[in-house]
């Protein structure tokens, strides 16, 4: 059976996503499970997930790209970052720059993102 474009991207992205999860082991925003207060019981937030900073039409292009990925707990992924007013891409990129500077690449990010991000706007969040 022929894979859809999304299935093909998912298959290609999996090794990178698995490697990122193995490398970070905790939520880049709240620190769960090691230091975060958000754990609410077995099963509720029992895994960390890969979150694409570029979403909407760009999400598939961002899947499995370390420069566009945050490793988050279920809570931050489902609640925090869905609020774009509080968590714009600039702020998410600042988290990536702090937690995984080796994966941060704004030029590469801007090649897949529709809304281009300026470094000064990411820098603003580094101090907040
Ligand atoms: Zn979290």
- CA-based gyration radius: 15 Å
Q: Got a strand count?
A: 2
Give unreliable regions as ranges. Answer: none
State the end-to-end distance: 49 Å
The total count of helices amounts to: 6
As a percent range, the share of helical residues equals 40-55%
* Distinct ligand kinds: zinc ion
Largest sheet: 2 strands, antiparallel
Mean pLDDT, as a whole number? Answer: 88
Q: Helix and strand string, N-terminal first?
A: HEHEHHHH
Strand content: 5-15%
**Outline, from the CA principal axes?**
globular
Oligomerization category of the chains in this entry: single chain
- Helix- and strand-based class? mainly alpha
Q: Give the domain tally.
A: 1
Q: In which order are the strands of the major sheet placed?
A: 1-2
List keywords for this structure.
globular; 128 residues; single chain; 2 strands; two-stranded antiparallel ribbon; binds zinc ion; mainly alpha
Explain how this protein is built.
- This protein is mainly alpha-helical and 128 residues long.
- It has one domain.
- The chain has six helices and two strands; from the N terminus they run αβαβαααα.
- A two-stranded antiparallel sheet has the order 1-2.
- The model has no long low-confidence stretch (mean pLDDT 88).
- Zinc ion (ZN) is lined by residues 27, 29-30, 32, 36, 38, 72-73, 75-76.
List the helices and strands and how they pair.
Elements: H1 5-24, E1 48-52, H2 59-62, E2 69-73, H3 74-78, H4 89-99, H5 106-112, H6 119-126
Antiparallel strand pairs: 1-2
The chain binds zinc ion.
Residues 27, 29-30, 32, 36, 38, 72-73, 75-76 line the site of zinc ion.
